[in-house]
Amino acid sequence: MAIQNLPQNKSKNKYIGAFGEKVIADFLQSRGVSIVERNWRVKEGEIDIVAQLPNGIFAFVEVKTRSSLAFGHPLESISNDKAHRLQRLALAWLATHRAFGAEFQIDCAAVLIANDGQHTIEYRANIL
User: Fold this and answer.
1) Which of 41, 69, 76, 119 is spaced 20 to 30 A from 113 at the CA atom?
2) How far out from the chain centre does Cα 20 lie?
3) CB atoms within 10 A of CB 12
4) C-alpha–C-alpha distance, residues 76 and 24, integer Å
5) Tens digits of residue pLDDT in 79-107
6) Half-sphere exposure of 78 (CA within 13 A, CB side)
């Protein structure tokens, strides 16, 4: 479905977010990356995608999806504070999954969706 046909409300935002996360999960899998978990939540926040790279390193991926640049590029919404919160969440995930001490990285991905449904991906690995 094209973006312009969706209603202007929270369900549109949910749809756009879920679409972006699926696009990035597919993008990673096409590069030999295993998706370990999606939308892991604790009181402090959420990790969009937990992945394991072919070399065994865990990648904790924050996905930002937008249907326009009216509010800036999607990656601009990831501040230093947000990146450090992602790091704390990654450590919490590792601890709760008995993988504390494993190598990991924090990655960010942007998905920009055009009105016709076409999209572009920008992926930044190891931002911290």
Assistant:
1) 41
2) 8
3) 14
4) 18
5) 889 989 999 999 999 999 999 899 999 99
6) 22
